[in-house]
Design brief:
Elements (H helix, E strand, L loop, with lengths): L4 H14 L5 H13 L5 H4 L7 H15 L4 H5 L1 E4 L2 E4 L12 H11 L8 E5 L5 H9 L4 E6 L2 H10 L9 E5 L15 E4 L13 H6 L13 H13 L5 E5 L5 H8 L5 E6 L5 E7 L85
Parallel strand pairs: 3-4, 3-6, 4-5, 6-7
Antiparallel strand pairs: 1-2, 7-9, 8-9
Helix pairs in contact: 1-2, 2-4, 6-7
Amino acid sequence: MSRTVLELLRLTTRWLGERGCPSPRVDAEVLLAHVLALPRMGLYTAHDRPLDDAEVDRYRALVRQRAEGVPVAYLTGTRGFWTLDLAVDERVLIPRPETEQLVEEALRRVGERRAAAWRIVDVGTGSGALALALAAELPHARVLGIDLDEDALAVARANAHLVPDPDRIRFVRGDLLAPLREHPRRPHLIVSNPPYIAAGDPRVEADVHGHEPHGALYGGDDGLDIIRRLVPQAAAMLAPGGWFLMEMGTGQGDAVRSLAAPHFAEVGVLRDLEGHDRVLWGEAAGALELGEEPSSEAAVDAGDAGADRGAGSTEEARAGSGAAAAGVEPEDGDDPPEEGGDPTASTGPAPAVDAAGRPLPVVDLQSL
């Protein structure tokens, strides 16, 4: 006897709940909507629709995996973030709603200057969630996403088609901001959702620990290992008057503010809707200068690395894999700036190598 949509939802909700699933009804609906290629609300207009045997078998297989702890986003292969429906799998962190606060804060600072030629860098881009959300909102921005994990970058590049004119977006492999060649044309905005969970934190759900990439989750004993390296690098690389926006964990506000205060003209910590520390902001000294609308042929130059463009690829996503965090720690450059150049150009990170001693890509910001 065929089961209807409503019957299956009721049975599945009870079954998942009995097995400890924290959101059994929502998960049952999302998975069934995925199998039937319907929006979730469409399940209610089709509540009396019977499922055929093939549909029931597909649904049962997904429900069993969910009961075993596989996150719903990995089962459906998609996760909504901002206005985008990103592809995701176990190569990348699943984008979270709280990370959208970084997008909100960035756009609040952009204000009415959305048509300007913004230069934006997303550190630990993972699925490309932050980079692509900002590119979707700022039509003339040039966006660079950096991650140390090549598998995560494949997902980000595959998601680039979700935004208009994806040729203005590049995704490159690198350790934090090491791919940025020291150059006077610096980013106006640097965003990051780095790994900030303390190793062994008992609050981490089993599903998260068991399936999402640890390099995108954990930031050492206190969760701040990557942040200690990223904050001074971001301050050194920002354009005058530029902003650094970074997600952090609950209770890290005071420590992160103390780390950032010596490096920026102004710093602050913003809380999320639940009152938890969530976003560090840092503003560089000086006046922000934005270029005119760029020509259509302008693009982020990947220099000698020959980094792939986001356009033309097909794949999936993350809300900041943060895997750019691991790897060899870059050292500050020691060479003095060339005559007539930016007098602070040597304060950024020097080019890095991976664990095998191979040079990581270096990106020239001349056309970013």
